[in-house]
Specification:
Blueprint lengths: L1 H10 L2 H19 L4 H8 L3 H13 L3 E4 L2 E4 L1 H17 L2 H12 L3 E5 L8 H17 L5 E4 L3 H9 L10 E4 L12 H12 L2 E2 L10 H7 L3 H11 L3 E5 L1 E2 H7 L4 H9 L2 E5 L2 E4 L4 E4 L7 H6 L2 E5 L6 H10 L4 E5 H9 L4
Length: about 350
């Protein structure tokens, strides 16, 4: 198939330009539906006349429906989106890119979705789908899955395929609560993921920003002790890869500590530890849940992050755990390959 695509690129490159354009229009309708033509044209920065012509074609092919509320994607259109996404893997050389990034980082596996999360909101959904399918594949009877919080992880929780073939799966938050958005908390994501997997779950009713004395006190609570014990037994960890500056902001660290992190060139945060680009610990904070040493021992780990802004954080985490799978986007992958200092 790949050889045929390369021949088509040489003799009729306009075919793939049209495919890219229609795929972009179709998936953006799916993401923002119902949506009008003018709003869609502004979002994808294509002329309204072109959008009108292309959406008329998609309507004629029964891929979208048009009503007074706006355009929506049909079930047939959803199938086309999935099919085109897989075709783009080949036309953009994604499989080859995955292997190059895997070798560069020296980790077990890399899975890449086309696009750039920082420019295209749909890429977040694609990251969620890829990670979700991998989780569903790795989860067996009695698997304990640890999950962190964040926007990317929330997308993963929603995109896990529903299944009922495996029994005894348990989903637990891998760390305490951070920030104010309930939908992005590890507890919320754990519950959603458990629902999709037809699994059981436990909640960790504790903030991840507790002081030392408060942390010691709360760890005496029997329910908290039980959940921490389960977390320590996790077979599979699914985690977002956080930038040091953004995580310092979420944890509301003092200005003095933020300046220290800048001085020490911290680029990534995981489980209360801050790392420089070489994966060296430069700062530690109190954190409830999985510890750094336990993270290194977990047999299966999936790190999910997209966008060029996450590249240094990805590089740091890749130093820390080689037996992991990275799920990222095309833009971050290309930037990783450009980086000569890894």
């Amino acid at each position: 198939m790949e050889k045929m695509i390369q021949l088509q690129k040489k003799i009729a490159p306009e075919i793939f330009e049209t495919l890219d354009k229609r795929y972009n229009i179709l998936r953006n309708i799916h993401l923002f539906q119902p949506i009008g033509r003018r709003v869609l044209a502004n979002k994808i920065e294509i002329g309204e006349r072109i959008v009108r012509a292309e959406t008329d074609f998609l309507k004629d092919q029964n891929m979208i429906e048009v009503s007074t509320a706006g355009m929506t994607v049909t079930s047939e259109g959803e199938e086309v989106i999935e099919g085109l996404r897989e075709l783009l893997y080949t036309t953009r050389g994604i499989v080859d890119l995955e292997e190059k990034v895997r070798v560069k980082l020296g980790i077990d596996r890399v899975l890449i979705t086309p696009g750039n999360l920082e420019e295209d909101e749909y890429v977040l959904e694609d990251l969620g789908k890829i990670a979700g399918k991998l989780i569903e594949k790795l989860a067996k009877d009695n698997t304990i899955i640890g999950v962190t919080g964040g926007t990317t992880m929330a997308a993963v929780g929603k995109k896990i395929p529903r299944q009922s073939k495996h029994k005894g799966i348990m989903v637990v938050p891998a760390r305490g609560g951070l920030g104010r958005e309930v939908e992005n908390q590890a507890n919320t994501i754990s519950a959603e993921m458990a629902r999709q997997l037809n699994a059981d779950y436990r909640l960790l009713h504790a903030s991840d920003t507790l002081g030392e004395k408060a942390l010691e006190s709360i760890l005496q609570d029997p329910e908290i002790k039980e959940v921490i014990g389960i977390i320590k037994s996790a077979d599979l960890l699914v985690f977002g890869i956080g930038r040091a500056d953004k995580m310092a902001q979420r944890r509301e660290l003092p200005d003095e500590t933020v300046k220290k992190l800048e001085r020490l060139k911290a680029v990534s945060e995981a489980f209360g530890y801050y790392f420089n680009r070489n994966g060296e610990i430069v700062h530690e904070t109190n954190s409830i849940g999985i510890k750094f040493q336990e993270f290194q021992q977990i047999p299966n780990a999936i790190g999910v992050a997209g966008g060029v802004g996450k590249v240094e954080a990805i590089l740091a985490i890749s130093h820390l755990k080689k037996n992991m799978t990275l799920v990222t986007d095309e833009a971050a992958a290309l930037e990783i390959l450009k980086n000569s200092q890894y």
